Amino acid sequence: MSRYDTDYSQMGFATKAVKSGEGPDPVTRALNTPIYETSTYGYETAEQYDEMLERGAAWEPDLYIYSRTTNPTTSALEKKVMALENAEDAVITACGMAAISNALLSNLNAGDHVICSDDTFMCTSSLFADILPAKGIETSRVEVLELDNIEKALRPNTRVIYLEALSNPRLKLSDLPAIAEIAHAHGCRFIVDNTFLSPCVMRPLDWGADIVVHSGTKYYVGHGDALCGIVAGRKEDMDRVRYYYDNLGSHISPYDAWLALRSVRTMPLRVRQQSENAMTLAKWFESRPEVDYVTYPGLESHPQHMLAEKLFLNGNFGGMLCVHLKGGYEEMCRFADATRIPPIATSLGDVVTLMFPKKAYGNLIRISTGCEDVNDLIADFGQAFEKMK
Ligand SMILES: Cc1ncc(COP(=O)(O)O)c(C=O)c1O
Fold this sequence. Notes:
Aspartate Aminotransferase, domain 2, 39% helix, 11 strands, seven-stranded mixed β-sheet, four-stranded antiparallel β-sheet, Aspartate Aminotransferase, domain 1, 2 domains, binds pyridoxal-5'-phosphate
């Protein structure tokens, strides 16, 4: 056995992040996975090509025919993701919405019913409000913190329960083991979007989810320079996702897959720092007279703090917090405009702290902490409070 075939499955998370899925390129021995910018792959004979097509149709790993279907750079990322999510298989897509739509479409047909939590990312909400119902799929939105609501919403044709583990934007934490039990008792697939936490903080498959999806654009990529989507779970489910992903054309570019692959190696380090910064900032904001309340799963004041302590890993509570200032829209704008370090921007999970003030969410300021020195962030937010007065 080659030293590069080492099995990392029993090793630590950080080792898996650095080592899994990668080794020297079989042709050149390049130690870092090359960016395979090719749409197609050349074969020697018609017979060999025919055999490859047959094997490719069964999703055999490390077999390349056309890059909409498989690409070696993307495959390396898939293998790394499998290791980090504790999944049998993983599929990488162009972005988070491609991951979510493929996960849902590969499990739902016209006449089926899906239950979704009431707090989700805007585009996910559009899927459940408009796009799925227009295709004959029934949807129910319920507050999933109350398990009874899920039980009551179940119908004979319910096939999927879908939610965001830590929800966008209100940071509600769902009881994954309890909801998985309900889903499985009714023969439903349980699909969890874990974008806001990342596998460094929690791994939904370990708590009973069947499929985990991510906007890999966020913590996986972590540098705000590529879009990426992730679906992971059992091989049988991923084969079905691949069938949809291939036919719908949801693939990531090899260059973006490579950016993600490079970034994943430092994800455990980044998320640890982001979690520490978030905890310090959450406590600081909570102590400020200008603040009405702070939502952060690491604070005892968070309604699901005890659940977070049970489900989360290594004392990390993630890098997402929401700050609700006293006053209204004007105060929120004055405060946000006066800050100098965090850009006002969509997205999250980057090494740069990002701030997302939103009137429509009740003047909530969502902060995604980066890896800056937290004292500089506190000084910046402190001077913004002075200017807000
Ligand atoms: C929770 C969540 N899921 C999915 C998405 C969509 O991801 P992408 O922008 O990569 O398509 C987002 C985007 O912000 C998100 O916040």
